[in-house]
Amino acid sequence: MAEAGPKLSGAQRAAIFLLGVGEESAASIMRHMEPREVQRVGEAMTSLVGVSDDQLTEVLGEFNTKAGSINPLGLGASDFAKRVMVQALGEDKANSMLAKVMPGKAKTRGIEALKWMDPASVAAIISEEHPQIMAIVLASLDEEQAADVLSELPKELHSDLMLRIAKLEMIDPAAMEELDKVLEKQLGRASKTPPRAVNGLTSAAAIMNNVDADMEVSVMEALRESDADTTDKIAELMFVFDDLMDLDDRGMQRLIREISVDTLVVALKGVDDQLQEKFFGNMSSRAADMLREDLDAKGPMKLTEVESAQKEILASAKQLADEGELMIGKGGDDFV
What we know:
Blueprint: H1 10-21, H2 23-30, H3 35-47, H4 53-68, H5 77-89, H6 91-101, H7 109-115, H8 119-126, H9 131-140, H10 143-152, H11 155-166, E1 170-171, H12 173-187, E2 196-197, H13 200-210, H14 213-226, H15 228-237, H16 249-258, H17 261-267, H18 273-280, H19 285-297, H20 303-322
Antiparallel strand pairs: 1-2
InterPro entries: Flg_Motor_Flig, Flg_Motor_Flig_C, FliG_a-hlx, FliG_M, FliG_N
Keywords: Bacterial flagellum, Cell inner membrane, Cell membrane, Cell projection, Chemotaxis, Cilium, Flagellar rotation, Flagellum, Membrane
Membrane topology: Peripheral membrane protein
C-alpha cells in the first residue's frame, strides 16, 4: 500500500496527481518537466501500489487549493514573453534578446539534450575536451546529474574542474559557441548561443553537496591546496546535515513529515545531542520517545549508511526549499 497522506513525498503526490488526471493530461504535463523531475516522478509512480480514493481526493484537493491561490496575471509571464518574441523575431534573435532581459534563462538545445543522458555518456562526450569546456557543461547541468558526471571523470581532474566552476561568472559568447561545436560534433546539434550568466560558486557548492563523502573530502582538500580562499567560499555555501539546526520549528516539522522513521533513525546515529534534540523537540512526545527507543536499539551502523541517509534527508530539505515550504541556508536571506 502507498503511504498515508502526511507521509507522502512531493514526488509521490505528483505521481498520484498525474495518475488522477489521466494519460493524455499527464503526458502533456510531463513534457514541461525537467529531466530529473521526470525521473523522480517516474520512480514514484512505479513505487505506488494500491492508491486509495482518500489519497487521490486529498492530493487533488491540495492541488486545487494551491492553484486557486495563484494570481493568473503573474503566472508564466516569462514563457509568454519568450513565445511572443520567438514569433516576432525568430528563434535566434529572440534567444539573443532574452539573454539580455532574462539573464541565465535562455537554454541551448545541446545542454538540454545532455540533461536526458546518463552520467557515463555525458562524461564520455566531454572527457576529451578542454577543462574549461567541461566546467561549463557541468555548471549547466542539474547539480545531481553534474555530481554523477563528475564521479565518472578522472579523479585528477576533479579539483581543477570544481575550481573552474567556482570562478565562473559570465560565459562569453565565444565559449558558448565552442561548447555548441563540441555538442554538434557529438550529438549532431548546433545553435547560436547568447552569453549565459553563471553563479559559479553556487554551482560548485551544489555539485559538492551531491557527491559521496569520500569524494567530497578528497576534492575539497585538493581545492584548498590550489586556492584556499575559493575553497572557503564554496564550503560556506554547502548545505550539510548540521545546517538543519538553523531550520525554524515550522520548517523542521514540515521536513519530518517528509521523511520516513527508518531513514531518520539511521541519519541520527552519531550526530551530536543538540541536533538530535532539534528533531525530538519538533515531534509529538510519543513519536519522540519511540524514536529514542529505536536509536538506542539500533546497533552499530556503517558510516556510509549514515551519510547516505543524511543525504536523503538533505535532498528532501532542498526539494521543500525549492517548493517554498521551508528556508535553508547560512545567510539570513539565502534560499537554497
